[in-house]
Records
---
Amino acid sequence: MTAYFTEEHNMFRKSIRNFAESELKPHADEWEAAEIFPKEIFAKFGKLGCLGIRFPEDYGGVGQDYWYTVILCEELAKVHCLGAAIGVLVQTEMATSSINEFGAEELKKEFLPSAISGEKIFALGITEPGFGSNAAGIQTAAKKDGGDYVINGAKTFISNGTRADFVTLAVRTGGPGSHGISLVVFPTDTKGFTVSRKLKKMGTKCGDLAELSFEDCRIPQRYLIGEDGKGFYYIMKCFQGERIVLASFANGLMELLLEEAKRYGLQREVFGTPVLKHGYWKQKYADMRTTEGLTLDAKRGSKTPAA
């Protein structure tokens, strides 16, 4: 029990830890070697309620606060399977939050239930070959034609990209700059769409990363998320949640590394004594634990994440 986590939070943490230890950790090396994790993992997380933690019950979610997302990230980061953890959080936080927060009711009813159950896989399509962090400069264009958008362009470094059923896609529907950008839900079975290339990575290999190509792809204008031209605002708003996700992954990894250091320090002996029993290393470890506690307290206590 802490100032930040209730008993319900701690029960959720225990359930996620048990699930990750039994369902992810034993397969981590195998999935890293294969450079993919089974898509069935999405459905398993869906059954746990993890893919709709903060989403309304009307669409299959469980309507909890952001601390549940923090816990999910911290625990998934500790089982040596970060690629799968990233894929899951892209599904529930990065790719679908804008639909939940800004989408029309019809759009939510059409897409959120299958995302929350894990039946369908979602990706977030923002980064382009020439425009990474500069989301205001994207060039993938969506031109209106009758009741449709016709989309042309390319995206890169897209997590879940090789097998996504839908992409929450940033497109240019207006003039240059941030005011010309919109978000749409893009079905990947659309004619003209291709996965150009699966990208190789140095780490987190079991999480897929792809380049995507769009050539005269036609989708209904009703797949627009929110208002035309408001996409950049939606992206920046949802990036706040993405940053909390990444910070929580870092916290979980930090806790894992400290536990690994303790385990090694008690096993490795020098001059007949475990390393961690030597005064110098005992002090160094205590310093690290103290710094960790101060860092976590500062991050968690500066401002409680909004529900």
---
Amino acid sequence: MPDVDQVAYEEACTASDIVIMAIPYTAVADTLPQLADPIGDKVLVDATNPLNDDWTPLPLDGGLSAGEVIARLAPRARVVKTFNTVFADVMTQAGLDRHGMRATAFIAGDDDDAVDLIAQIASEIGLAPRRTGPLINARHLEGMAHLNIAIALGQGGGTDAAFVYG
């Protein structure tokens, strides 16, 4: 394993062009407010899903999505919701190949340039990007993730499943 420098979240956000929020959603409210200034108007990728400890959906106040809550906590950031519907077990070159098709990265966001940038990155890492419209659609993407989790864990389907949008 290569040596990796460890830096504080604030330093990492300041030094980065893109910030990926890939922590448990339940830690977002304690973590993100201190990072709003270092993130500023950068692209902030929300890969979270609002889940309880038992992996069931965590309802959010007002019917908001995690993506919308994150956008409120980092109001200048250009929030893009994606990667939340793809299990970590699928995030390999072999796992992204779904019988000749690529696993889909659904992407929602209000800033077209930010969505285009993340779609390009998703494609470069082997996913098939699918733009889904504005950030309010993060509600649907989180619902898709909840369904995928329910099938994988609740019905024993396993975490090697992925959505493929043809």
---
Amino acid sequence: MGVQLTVIGSSPAWPNPGSAHAGYVVDGDERLLLDCGPGVLSRLRTDGLLAVDAIAITHFHLDHWGDLVPWVWFAKHGGELARKPVLWLPPSGRRELETFAGWWGHPGMFDETFELTAYEPGVPFTAAGFRLVAYPMAHYDIEAFGFRIESPGGKVLAYSGDTGPCDSLPKLAEGADLFLCEATLTDADEDAELRGHLSAAEALTVGNPRTVLTHRPAELGTPAGAERAVDGLVLQI
């Protein structure tokens, strides 16, 4: 089975010009959305990719999940949704969403829109026909994960989410057909006290030969010979 990755949004914590925040569609027999930051819902509608079967969230920094809030109102009033996506959350995800619902809506708002379920680190789960395993990542002091996504045909995509250097990162990327890795920093010294991000050099030395850099500020260049994710990029895996 062929697998296709479409970059919906590739911005870091602040938006690059004309770019949405983190969001990546993985298409096989079904459609999986990895993260759903601000701007992603609009792009999905514009590009005809809204019919997702499942969504998997790496962590609860706003640039990786924020468009789940307008998704609720769109599902309630927009009238264009063909299905209720399964929403895979970090272990503390239900508690987090209950708090957010109290701020920005009403209790149960996310349950009305999504089929909520939580994954556990290291325990395989199935989302949109893909086999996923969540690996703990080093993102400051919050609960954060990267995903290793395997298709029924054996193709493997590794996605770092947001992370600094950590022991599980090379394990996540090892042997993957494509490694989508964040590269937020100019150099590691920017993030030295409590690591939460990578430089491009660190991302490229994790060890996967097909690494695509993402979550990278427009102000920073791309190392010679490296691949960089931009909104609208389509990659075959």
---
Amino acid sequence: MNYRSVKQILPAFKVDMGGVVLDQALPHSTVKQIDPFLLLHHLNTSYPAGSKQQEVGVPPHPHRGFAPVTFIFQGGVHHRDSMNISSVVHGGGTQWMHAGKGIVHSERPTKEVAEQGSTWELIQFWVNLPAKYKMSAPQYHPLSHEDTPLVTSADGRVKLGVVAGDFQEVQGGIETYSPILALRMNFEAEGQIDIPIPEGFNAFVYLLDGQLAVNGQSEVKEKDLVWLAKDGAGVHLKAKAATRAILLAGEPINEPLVSYGPFVMNKQSEIMEAMQDFQSGKMGHLEEVFD
């Protein structure tokens, strides 16, 4: 296989999101987006034992024009939204929410995680939507660890969860609104694998922990985002130690982008309309109910 070279390595940096400190790998100081991916946040935290669910996590907030996606690694996420959906997904699972024309949701650690002070680790990334789908009906898609299709490398040392797209003739568990390949990867030390990437797709690898050699050359460490150039057919990854990572690849949308907070549209006037629609209740209302 003709491998893609490393275009740029973006080390994650700490950001404070309303009192929640996490690692942000995208956007970066020099990179606004890796089309169609707009943002990547990595949260690894715990709350004091005895915390109340309603006092932790992310309270109700709106979205329009893109898909916020959450990969859960430790603990569980309790999703509630203005479509009257209440859903819990635990470690190894995924929550893929198509915000479309607008939705209000909250993301809390489960009651057990809050009360026990357990580790809560997740990655959230934002996937832009083509203009023709930005005002479509919102949808929420949970995917448990058990229902995520699994592929094991030839050496038996790498396990990949196929969340979206096609990998080694295994179809991911989520259908997307533009072509996406989304993989969750767990490497044992010395595990290695070739991953084909469709021609023309933008692609990157992000390491939660551990260490990888990329194409036998570049060595990258935990919390590095490795942006791959479009000069090859795939990438070779080999673990120097036990490593958790994700690979995201997608067909660029190549449309104008205007964003403001939780809204991602094509024109400034559409952002103003989104703000007005949220304030007037057109995106619905969420009244959380706690045990």
